[in-house]
Specification:
This protein is α+β, with helices and mostly antiparallel strands. The protein has a single domain, classed as Nuclear Transport Factor 2, Chain: A (Roll). Helix content is about 20%, strand content about 45%. It contains 2 helices and 6 strands.
Length: about 140
Amino acid sequence: MLERITPPFTEASARQSVQNAEDAWNRRVADDIPGDYTVDTKWRYKDVFLEGRDNIVPFLDARWPLQQEYRLKKELWSFGDTRISVRFVSEWRRRDSGQWYRTFGNEHWEFAEDGLMSVQDISANDMEIKKSERTL
C-alpha cells in the first residue's frame, strides 16, 4: 500500500497524487477505491451525485462492467493547499454495443487533513470513436 499523501500539496506531491489516482483507476478493483475517501465524501460524476464512502463500490460495480478495455490518463492541471484539479482522457468500449468512446473531462478534488479525498467533482463528455482512432 502506498503512503498517503497529505496536504498542503507541493507540485511534486500533487503530481504523485494524480499518478496514484490514475494507477488505481486503471487497475479497476472497486474494493480498493473507497479507502482513499472520507466517510462522508461527496462525488459528482457527470449527472450522478453520491454521498458517502459506502456508495462508491455499488456505483463502480454498476459502471465499470459496461466499460470494457478501459484505459485512463490523468494530468495535473493546478493545485493549492488542499485542492487538486486534473484533466483526463479515457478510452473504452461499451460492452453491450461494442462502440468505442473517448471521454474528456476535468476533475476537482478536495482533501481532508489526513489526505483522504472529501470532494470529487467530475465534468466529462463521451465522444464516439472508431477502434482505429484510439490513442491510449
